[in-house]
Amino acid sequence: MLLHQILLQETSLRMDLEKTVRDLMKEFEQMKRNQAEVKKEQEILNQELIDNITSLRTENQQLKDELEQIVNSGMGTCKCDLTNITSDFHNFKSDFSYNVSLSLLDFQKEINSTTANILHSSDDKIGAVSRDISDMQSAFKNLSGFIDRDRNFQASVNDDILVQQQNISNVIIETLPLDCKELYMNGKRKSGVYTIYPWERSDPNYRPVQVYCDMETEGGGWTAIQRRINGEENFNRSWTEYKFGFGTPYGDYWIGNDAIHQLANGRNLSLHVTITPLKDGFVSFKTYDHFYVFGEDQNYTLQLANPGNGNFKNDALLEGHDRYKPIGMQFSTFDVDNDNYYRNCAAVYLGGWWFNRCHNAYLTGPWQSDKWRNPWYPQYTSGRHVNGTSMLIKSH
């Protein structure tokens, strides 16, 4: 607001200066016109003087002619008169010359006086404008100094604001929820989509993540890292897509392997797996009390142990032949093959997973299709029988 007022004042000063300069220019133009008029009047007077002199010369010549006629006619009696006439003529001529000289002198004085007045007036105007310009320059200089001080003050205020914003941001970050369990502990009891912050603010990977929170299953506070409810998302995705995640927590999605590792890093997590069959809708589930995923430098290697509650007919992840178990396996996608099979299991079974050679269970096959083979063997041998899946994690 203060800077705006200063700018308005500067604009007003500039407008006043421009008006003064315009007025001076008008007076200069008027002075030129006055000088032209004086010159014109002088020319008229000069012409009148020339005309008078010409007339006098004509009269003088006429007088001479008359005198010559008188002399030539022998009118001696008129000598006295001639002498008088000659004397009168010389007196007239002398008086006329004197009067003309006085007129010329008076006219020259008038011209000099007018010119002096014009120059004096112009000097006064120029002096006044010069003083105005000097005053305005001083005002501009003072104004510039004030503006510089104000800018420095504004910069200082802005720095203080940035510091306060950073402090507030740090406080907010410290209170932002890490996962759905923290939301549950803070009083959130309704299942749905929430925003969590797995990374610290200083982490280069920092970003908020939208997830589905299950606030009802086994005490609530579960964070869904994988969810399929309508088949709208294709889970046959690239390594990069699995790294950062895809889909929407309002429907089908994979949270992202980076986020899974960040949520697991330095914490004890449980995994809760569910499959909803197409036929009767009775949800099958299995809980594991130890779940961990390493970072990308180890290709998101999976650790899974300590099976807990569940109603599956079998444990397809930990039971069965070792060559099908995902334990200790790196993650694979159709463009990055980390399995133990001579072919790329992810490319064959059309979904990313911790394949071995290849699997007894995986939850990322083609939706409700026979191409999704053995989602959970032997209870679910085809994706055609599956109407939903989820992988939920929670710290303990």
Automatic annotation (TrEMBL):
Keyword annotations: Coiled coil, Disulfide bond, Glycoprotein, Secreted
Cite the GO molecular-function annotations of the record: extracellular matrix structural constituent; protein-macromolecule adaptor activity
Query: Where in the sequence is the signal peptide annotated?
Result: none
Biological processes, Gene Ontology terms? positive regulation of heterotypic cell-cell adhesion
Where do the coiled-coil regions begin and end? Answer: 14-73
Annotated InterPro entries: FIB_ANG-like, Fibrinogen-like_C, Fibrinogen_a/b/g_C_1, Fibrinogen_a/b/g_C_dom
Q: Which GO terms describe its cellular component?
A: fibrinogen complex
Predominant localisation class = secreted
Protein localization: Secreted
Fibrinogen C-terminal domain segment(s):
171-396
Pfam families per the record? Answer: Fibrinogen_C (PF00147)
- Protein name in the entry: Fibrinogen C-terminal domain-containing protein
The taxonomy runs: Eukaryota, Metazoa, Spiralia, Lophotrochozoa, Mollusca
